[in-house]
Write a structure and sequence with these properties.
Layout: E1 8-11, E2 27-30, E3 61-65, H1 74-86, E4 90-95, H2 99-111, E5 119-122
Parallel strand pairs: 1-2, 3-4, 4-5
Length: 146
C-alpha cells in the first residue's frame, strides 16, 4: 500500500514472496494457506444464469475481468484488444463501474479496431475465473458478489 497510516498487510507466500517483502513499508502478516478468506457456508444462488441472461453471445469465447474499471491500464487494455482482434469469435466481459467508464472503454476499443459491441458490461453478479488487471491483480473482493 505504501501508506504511512497502514501498519500491516495480510498476504500469503504466493502473493508476497520472501524476496519481495522488503518492497513493503507495512509489516507482512502471512496466513498459512491462502489470504483469500471465503465463506464456505454462503448459499449458492437458487437460479442459474444463462449466457443470454448475462448478455453474452452463445458459442463465443468469453474473456472477462471484474476489477474496477480504474484498474485497467492502457497497456493491459491494448493486450486485451489484441486478443479480441486475433480471436474473432470472442467478447470481453467487464464490470460496469459507471456508464462514463463503459462509454470510454468502448471508444478506446473502436480506436484499436475492435467493434465496441464486443465489450459486454455487467453489474456485479455472475462470474467465474477472470483476468487480473496488472499491476492490481484479480478482483478478490468481488468473489462472493459475482
Amino acid at each position: 500500500m505504501g501508506c504511512s497510516f497502514v501498519d500491516y498487510i495480510i498476504a500469503d507466500r504466493t502473493l508476497i514472496s520472501e524476496n519481495d517483502r522488503n518492497f513493503y513499508s507495512e509489516k507482512v502478516v502471512l496466513l498459512p494457506h491462502s489470504y483469500q478468506a471465503n465463506d464456505r457456508k454462503r448459499e449458492i444462488a437458487e437460479t442459474e444464469l444463462s449466457r443470454h441472461d448475462c448478455g453474452l453471445p452463445d458459442g463465443a469465447f468469453v474473456f472477462c475481468c471484474f476489477n474496477g474499471n480504474y484498474k485497467i491500464t492502457p497497456d493491459t487494455f491494448d493486450c486485451w484488444m489484441t486478443l479480441l482482434r486475433q480471436s474473432s469469435n470472442s467478447v470481453l466481459w467487464l464490470l460496469e463501474d459507471n456508464k462514463i467508464a463503459a462509454k470510454n472503454l468502448r471508444k478506446e476499443a473502436q480506436q484499436r479496431d475492435v467493434d465496441p459491441s464486443r465489450l459486454i458490461f455487467c453489474r456485479a453478479r455472475a462470474a467465474g475465473p477472470s483476468f487480473g488487471s496488472t499491476p492490481f491483480g484479480r478482483p478478490i473482493p468481488r468473489y462472493g458478489a459475482m
